[in-house]
Each structure stands twice: as C-alpha cells, then as structure tokens.
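Discussion board: Methods & Data

I've been asked by a reviewer to show the raw model output for two of the constructs in my manuscript, not just the figures. I'm not sure how much to include, so I'm pasting the format here to get opinions. Each protein appears as its amino acid sequence followed by a line of discrete structure tokens. Is this the kind of thing reviewers expect to see in a supplement, or should I convert it first? Here is construct A:
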Amino acid sequence: MKTKGLMVVTTVVIITAVTVSAQSCSDSSGCTQVCPMAPDYSGKTAAPVSFVEGKDKIDVLIGGQHMTSYLFMDTLTKPVLYPVKTPSAAVLNRGFPLVKVDGETSDHPHHLGIFFTYDEVNDSGFWNNTTWPPQIKHIQVSEMKSGEGKGTLATVMHWIDKNKKPILEEKRTMVFHAGENAYAIDFTMDLTAKTKVEFGDTKEGMFAIRTADWLREKGGTGKYLSSNGDTGAGKIWGKRAAWVTLEAKKEDKTVGIAIMNHPSSVNYPTFWHARDYGLFSANPLGQEAFEKGTKAPDPQKFGLELEPGETAHFRFLVIVYDGTKTKKQLDAQFEQFAQQK
C-alpha cells in the first residue's frame, strides 16, 4: 500500500477525569471485551440483538424492536443502512429517494441511508452515481450472529467499475451494540484490490449518513460538535478530528448521532465533510482537497494506491442516542473504542 505526500498523525488524548463503569460483552468463545456502549448500560442487562432476513434486506432488531435494515437490492448503487433509529424510534435518516415524505428535501439523490463509498477510484466514480455501473454489489453474507447485548453481521461486496469489472473486494463487519439510551454500530471495512487501484483526491466520500431534515443545521435544529471542541459545520468541515457528533431537538426531545474514527483506520484521524444541509461524512482520503479548502499551508495529496492483493482498513463507530452527550462523555466513549482491536 502506497500513499503520496505527508500523513499527519495526531496523538490520542486519554481522558482520566471521567469515571466509566465498564460492562463486558461475552462472545461465543467465552472471552469478554469492553463494549463501546458500556457507559449507557448503567448495570442493566443489555437487550438482545437479532436479525431477520427478507428479500434483498436484513432487518436488525434490538430488544425485539426494529433498529435498522441492511438494504442491498440491485436497484441501489451501493448497500445502505436505512432507516436508522434511536432507542425512542426517532428516525435519523432522510427518506428520499427511498421513501417520499411531504415537504422533505430532494437534493443529492445519491445520499442515501448510512453508506460507504468514494468518487474517484481508478477511472470510476462510486459517489455521485444513482444508476450503475459503477456499483458496489452485495455478494454474500459471511456471518450473521445474534446475541445478548450485541449482534454481528458480516458481508462481502465487490466494487464494480464503469466497465463492469470488479476492482475491489470489500469485507464489511457491522457489530450492533445495545445500550440503555443508545445503540452503536461498529463498522469495519477492508478493501482488497483485485487489480491496481488508485484513489483520487476528492471531498466526495467516504463514510456518511444523509440526515433527516430536522436534524441538519440549515433549516433544522441540529448542531455539530467535534473532538477538537469546534462547533458548527463551517468550523468542522475540512479539518481532522477523532469524532464528530450532531444533536438536534425533535418534538421537545434531544437526539444525536456521533461518528468516531478508529486509530487503526487509514489516514487517521479522518477529515470531515460535514455540511449544514444534512450530509455528515468522514473522508480520510480527500486530504489535499480539504487542506486547500481550509487554506492550510502546503496542501499534500494522501494518494492511496493498492497493488493487487493489498488491503486498506477503515473503521468507524456510529452511536445513535436519545438525550444529549457532553464532550467529556464522548471523549470517554472514544477512548474505549480506540483501545479495542
């Protein structure tokens, strides 16, 4: 794996002022690991996570209630999670173009659910397309395991270019965690090249959610906060940060969604393509585009290149929650996440 230019490394700050009562999640092997949702369990038994297979989709249930669905029908240009709900059933995604909602915005039809894609991969654009090819195509489910407090769904996908040739194999693992007032999804995406692959330098990527209109800053009640302490899309866009959260009020209730970038991920800490109109995206590969956009001195391309058989690793934690979270609380949850392997 090759990269062009300079890679900036940020030291993880360990928060010691916040006391967290950890709860462990046991796996089938009998060992335990600290769950990233531990602060929200409050000593209570975690709800079961289960999966229900349907036609071109897999529903995710937490405590018997629908939390989200993994959608992979051939009409989509990439698999997505939609809808995504908090424990109080607040839907955080915009419905368009899957669901028609009166008065809802209809810009950027390629922004759909929670998605992972990129616009410049060799000579194919996987971000802006609403028809295929190119397409990120679901191939198979490699693991589907329910459990108390967490459940795992793993899949295999092929990134098929505009010439209908697979250029990348994606192995994705999604671990769903159940908390008392929050849910978390631990996403791991490993991209292995089937041919030589070069990723361009663009803001159009990479791990994203298109939020419901009420959750956005422009026209809604939302407000972004980053691990750097910056607030608002204008101050967060184009900068590196370990995590960013977006909170808003809906019917007098506050809900939020946080995205955290694991230190093992490519070009950590990621840059953020956070927009006030509802796009909330982490993009580690558009380094030069963001550095130019923020007028950083001496902008440098990251320039990710993969030879056949080489793999690039990406990992993000999504936390959807009811209520509000302070920066100290999110720093503590990030530190738990960062220590996991």
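Construct B, same format:
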Amino acid sequence: MKYIPKYILPLVLLMLYSCGSSRRSSTPPVPSSPLPSYALEYVNKYSAMAVIEMERTGIPASITLAQGMLESDYGRSYLARKANNHFGIKCHSSWQGERAYKDDDRKNECFRSYGNVKDSYRDHSDFLVTGSRYKDLFRLSNTDYKGWAHGLKKAGYATDPDYASLLIRKIDEYGLHAFDAGGNKTAKKGMAESDAVKPQTVEAQSPASVAATAATVVTAVGKASDPVSEQSASGEPARVVTLGTGRTGINNEVKYVVVREGETFSSLAAEFQLLSWELSRFNDLPSDTTLSAGQVIYLEPKRTSAAEGSAMHLVKPGETMHLISQMYAIKINSLYKMNLMDKGQECVPGQKVRIR
C-alpha cells in the first residue's frame, strides 16, 4: 500500500461515495410503518366536507382535514364523539348554540356542541372567516397549506408551539394537499375583507372534487389503486375512495363519475358499459337532461338513506330536494318518504330535511 500514489486512495473513496449517493437518491423512501386505518377512514368520511368548505370560503381542504384530525384525534376524542366538535372551538361570548364542558387550559371549559359533524365543519370555516385575527390568511392561495399552517399558529388558533409543524406533517404524511387542487386558486379576499359570511349554494358536484384527486391521495399514502375496505371503529366497513381513473369516486358507497365537457348519458353509458336509461334513473333525472362539466353522475343506484354520521340536513338558499339527494347519494323518492313530503314538493331555506 505504501507504493500506491497518494492521489489514488482519495479518488477511489470519492468514486465509492458518489456511487452510494446515486443509489440512495434513486431509491424512493419507504414508510417506516403502514398508515393506520383510522386515518384513512377519517379522510374518506370527511374529505368531501372539507372540499365543499374550501369552495365556499377558500380555506384549503388540506388544512381543514389536518386540523380535524389533530383536534379530534381522528374523530375519536370526547368532544368529537359527544358534541360532534372536530376543531376544539370553544364557546366564546357570541355562541348561542348547544354546549359541552371539558377540562382544557382551565377546568370545565365550555366548548361548542353541534347536531352533526357537517355543522362543525361549516362553523369552523365561519369561525375563521369572521375572525378578524385570521383575515390575513385569506390573502394566501388555498394551495399554500404551509403558509396557512404558520398563519393559524401566528394568529393564536392553538397554544401548542409546534402547531404549524404538526399540521404540515399530517398534510405531507397523508398527501392531503391533493384535495386543494380542485378549489379556487386564491381565497376569497372580498369575504375576508368584509369579515362577513355570505350564504352560497353548494353545488351537487362538490364531492367530485374529492374524486378528482383521490388517486393522488391514495398513491401518497401507499395504497393500491383498486377499491379496498378499511374496518371502522364500529366494526362496519368504511369504503375508501381508491378508484384510479382520476374522475371517479364513491359517495355513500355509491360509485360516481365527474362529467367532462360535452359528455352525455349516451357517451357515459358506452364508457361504463351501462344503458342510458339506467344512468338517468340512477340520478333521478329526465332522459333528455343536458349534462354539465363537473356534474356528478352516479353509476349505480343510490341508497335509501345517507351514510352514518349525519341524520338531518339544514337547507341552504338555492338547494332543492334533488340537489340534496345527489349530495348524499340518496334516492329522491326515499328522501320524500323520510320527510313525509309529496313527490315534487320542494324544501325551503332553514328547513331540516331528514336524510337518515
């Protein structure tokens, strides 16, 4: 060895290091452990709500989901189970609704209680929109989830000094940022500036935004592209949206497709090996209906009731019985029967419509 020129050994070591670095960079990281089923169940169950709220207010769906996961322990916390409170929002002086009490920073503190989880998601959005300390967040793009995470911490949403990093970690770990792709590119600045929540119609295609990015989310969490079932805490199978076409998904265990520009019942029937009249019947629509881009069309019969987690729907301005039936994948005749309404009768804003 002493006769080897001095420059040879460093050169060999450099070559070995370079090869090793190349191999490491070309090998994708492998998760240290499989992702828990309760996390996937939470995403499957509430992602549509998060996307609807993003389209209504501009708050990133990924932020809403990550906060819900963190604050409610994936829907398993006392407040989530007893009060449907998924975001740990306390009563404050303005709260006029039901209340639940729990020890937190102080003993026996007052927290908001909701009739269902959907109301919790909506109130979380309204809480941020109407809170003056959060108004700067609405100048951010709804794809800037890191900016939102740090902004929430800075505005004092939580006292945990690691709150922003905890949110970002959950979004990255579960690929939740994929749900932000379908919403508005910029948050609604006008709403933030006026600090007023303006009622808006939730279109029937809102859950489709979830389906449009479902394949990305599933890839991010390391699941296969075929439909799978995860076991819920109640022992019932929870359907996980894992169809890989980029525009299909499952709502209330009913398969649907998001309509593209120019598509008709006939073209969809040919693509999915169905009959045109089947599609119109599945969706409670006339056979000559002109379909719109972004519209949700179910590819199999809808259910007779909504999925577990919500029993009533509070009607918003502009909503119809058909819209509600599509929103929850319920047959419209079943919706009429549950509410003792005549066929063709319409709901009115403020009405509570039974969905289960």
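Answer (T.O., handling editor elsewhere):
This is acceptable in a supplement if you add a one-line summary per construct. For B, something like: The chain is about 40% helix and 10% strand.
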